[in-house]
Each structure stands twice: as structure tokens, then as C-alpha cells.
């Protein structure tokens, strides 16, 4: 898209697409959708612009939620934390932002920036730093292109704000995560301030258009009484992993993350088999009961309710829920050595190498 106006009604599709591409994480976009719809109704529609239409010397700033998605279900944001973080960052830099960015194409962080864009009147750039959701702050394409996460501002619902300057994006993650835990497990941030020239190189382009298109596909397939899994699998050259019913789930909020493992009993074509999914905010690894790898980070492991076809996030997993899992190829940047250093299996403590989902399911 070159320039498109996003209305309150458009946020339904964007939230659906963000929940699907969020690979189980990034937080339930429903909360962010409501915040965005309220802001759009109050201030007017959001203009989404192409990355290539941004001036090279423009100040571009991502705004996002940081913390455990489960916390956001219990501790709703006040509503102006992200805007406050942006204003504090602008004051620190001595310069106003010219455009806003979604840091990830999944979950809550695919919808909250629309609320800030509506409130400020700033355009939102059609792109993001992941093409999906990842759990840690440094896990963005921007890191691979040498763009610093700091200065970064955190803001919580109590009115606290904090500014960080760090020696690396990994240290930004460590220090911001510790502060987020003290802020109650979730905070809103403004970070990765960059020029338009840096953004054009470091950002994954056109992913907001992609999110909206995915959401519209899910909605149209459901309206036609079809499960959207088949169309989405074909669209992304993905692979069906399994359909199963949750028989056990371990989940804990530790260190600012929602970590856990879910066990599934296969149904339909997968009857008689068992499967498991590990997650850290996002789904990281899928295996069958024999320990065979079905899909692994950084490829996307996306979940849809087996009956209704709606996206399923990690915090929505519960005993008895039937879920269909799809594996999608990650953006090619994540499959490079630099990408795998940031988000590959080894970083998360797994001893298996990365194997593309299409190689696991030829």
C-alpha cells in the first residue's frame, strides 16, 4: 500500500491477522484493538504509509508493550502509557517523531501502535521488525542492521517512566525486562528511534498490509463456513503440523515471560498420536510423541481453534481445547546465521539445529 486510511472497523481484521502471525504470543490483540478503536473514533482514522514514502531524515519510533502476555489479561493498561513513553522519548531526543512503527507483526503490538497513531495524528509505517512475534526486545531485524534499541522509555499504568541507554540491544532486553517485572510484569515502551534511511533498510516491509489481508481471509473463510487453515497454509507455502486436543498444560509467568509446555492428543487424521508445543510467550518448538521435530523457531508455529478457526494465543490454551497447528516459513532474514544467532533454537536452549519447516515436511 502507498497510503491507506485505517478506520475503527478495519481493526477487527488487523487484530485477527496479528493474533495469527503472533505465533501464540505478543499478547491478545483484542485489548489493543479496543484501545485503537476508541482512539480512532475519538481522533479520526490512522494513515498507513509505505516505508519508501518516508523522508530519509525523518524520526521513526516503534511503540510497543513489553512483558508477559498473561499479565495483560489481569492488569489492563490505563490507555495513555504508550503515548507517555513516546512523549518522554521525544523530550529526551529534543525532536518530535515523524512516523510510528509496529515493532512486531503479532498480537497486542500489532494493534497498540494504531491507538498511539490515532492520538498523535502521526502516520504508521507499513512494516515491522519481525514479521511475526518474538519474546525478547533484541529479537528484531533492526538489530541485524545495527540499529540501537536505546534510548528507550518504559512507562507503567501507575505513572512511572524510565529511560535506558545501554551498550547493546541484548543489554537493553535484560535491563528493560528487570524494570518491567518491577512495574508489575508489563509496561509500554518507545524504543529503537531511527532515521527514515535506517528504517528503509532495517524494517521488514509491507507487513501491516499482510496482517490486514490475513485477518480478512480468516473472516471471509469463517463467513463461508470454512476453516481458514487450508487457505492460510497454501498462501504461505506452509505445512499442517497436527490437530489435537489439550490434555495437559504447564504455564508460569517467570522472569517477565509466560513460559510453558502443552501436551495434545491427536484428533481426526492425527488420532492415536500425541504432540507437544513449547512456548516462551510465543510457540517455539513443536514435536510429536516420539520426539520428532515438526517445526522450530524461527519458523512460525501458528494456532487456530480446530472448530471455529479463530487464532489461539498461549494464554488461551486450556484443557480440552482442540487446536490446529500450522508451520510457516520465517522471513529469509531469520534463516541467516545472524538471524539464527538472535532467534534460533540454540538461543532458547535447545540442542537441535534449525531445520526449515518445508524440509521437515517435504
Q: Features of this protein?
A:
six-stranded mixed sheet, 362 residues, CV3147-like, 18 strands, 32% helix
Q: Would you kindly provide a written description of the structure presented here, covering whatever features stand out?
A:
It is a single chain. Strand 7 and strand 8 form a beta hairpin. With 362 residues, the protein is α+β, with helices and mostly antiparallel strands. The chain contains twelve helices and 18 strands. The mean pLDDT is 93. It has two domains: 205 residues, CV3147-like domain (CV3147-like fold, 3-Layer(aba) Sandwich), CATH 3.40.1610.10; 135 residues, Beta Barrel (CV3147-like), CATH 2.40.390. The two termini are 34 Å apart. Helix 1 packs across helix 9. The protein has a seven-stranded antiparallel beta sheet. Strands 3, 4, 7, 8, 9 and 10 form a six-stranded mixed beta sheet that branches. Pfam families: S-Me-THD_C, S-Me-THD_N. This is DUF917 family protein. InterPro entries: S-Me-THD-like_C (IPR048350), S-Me-THD_C_sf (IPR024071), S-Me-THD_N (IPR010318), S-Me-THD_N_sf (IPR027479). It comes from Kaistia dalseonensis.
Amino acid at each position: 500500500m502507498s497510503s491507506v486510511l485505517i478506520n475503527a472497523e478495519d481493526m477487527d481484521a488487523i487484530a485477527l491477522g496479528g493474533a495469527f502471525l503472533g505465533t501464540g504470543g505478543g499478547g491478545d490483540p483484542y485489548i489493543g484493538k479496543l484501545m485503537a478503536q476508541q482512539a480512532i473514533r475519538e481522533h479520526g482514522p490512522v494513515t498507513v504509509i509505505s516505508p519508501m514514502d518516508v523522508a530519509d531524515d525523518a524520526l521513526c519510533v516503534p511503540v510497543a508493550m513489553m512483558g508477559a502476555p498473561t499479565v495483560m489479561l489481569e492488569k489492563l493498561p490505563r490507555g495513555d502509557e504508550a503515548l507517555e513513553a513516546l512523549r518522554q522519548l521525544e523530550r529526551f531526543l529534543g525532536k518530535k517523531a515523524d512516523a510510528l512503527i509496529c515493532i512486531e507483526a503479532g498480537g497486542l503490538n500489532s494493534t497498540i501502535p494504531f491507538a498511539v497513531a490515532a492520538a498523535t495524528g502521526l502516520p504508521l509505517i507499513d512494516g515491522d521488525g519481525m514479521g511475526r512475534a518474538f519474546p525478547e526486545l533484541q529479537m528484531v531485524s533492526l538489530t541485524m542492521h545495527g540499529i540501537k534499541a536505546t534510548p528507550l522509555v518504559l512507562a507503567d499504568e501507575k505513572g512511572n517512566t524510565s529511560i535506558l541507554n545501554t551498550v547493546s540491544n541484548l543489554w537493553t532486553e535484560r535491563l528493560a525486562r528487570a524494570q518491567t517485572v518491577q512495574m508489575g510484569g508489563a509496561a509500554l515502551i518507545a524504543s529503537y528511534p531511527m532515521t527514515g534511511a535506517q528504517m528503509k533498510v532495517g524494517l521488514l516491509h509491507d507487513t501491516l498490509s499482510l496482517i490486514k489481508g490475513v485477518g480478512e481471509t480468516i473472516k471471509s473463510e469463517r463467513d463461508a463456513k470454512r476453516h481458514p487453515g487450508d487457505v492460510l497454509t497454501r498462501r504461505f507455502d506452509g505445512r499442517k503440523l497436527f490437530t489435537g486436543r489439550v490434555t495437559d498444560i504447564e504455564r508460569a509467568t517467570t522472569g517477565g515471560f509466560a513460559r510453558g509446555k502443552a501436551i495434545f492428543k491427536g484428533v481426526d487424521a492425527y488420532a492415536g498420536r500425541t504432540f507437544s508445543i513449547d512456548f516462551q510467550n510465543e510457540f517455539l518448538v513443536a514435536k510429536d510423541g516420539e520426539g520428532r521435530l515438526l517445526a522450530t523457531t524461527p519458523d512460525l508455529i501458528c494456532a487456530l481453534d480446530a472448530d471455529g478457526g479463530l487464532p489461539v494465543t498461549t494464554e488461551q490454551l486450556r484443557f480440552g481445547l482442540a487446536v490446529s497447528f500450522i508451520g510457516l516459513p520465517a522471513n529469509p532474514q531469520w534463516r541467516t546465521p545472524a538471524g539464527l544467532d538472535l532467534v534460533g533454537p540454540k538461543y532458547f536452549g535447545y540442542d537441535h539445529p534449525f531445520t526449515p519447516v518445508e524440509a521437515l515436511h517435504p
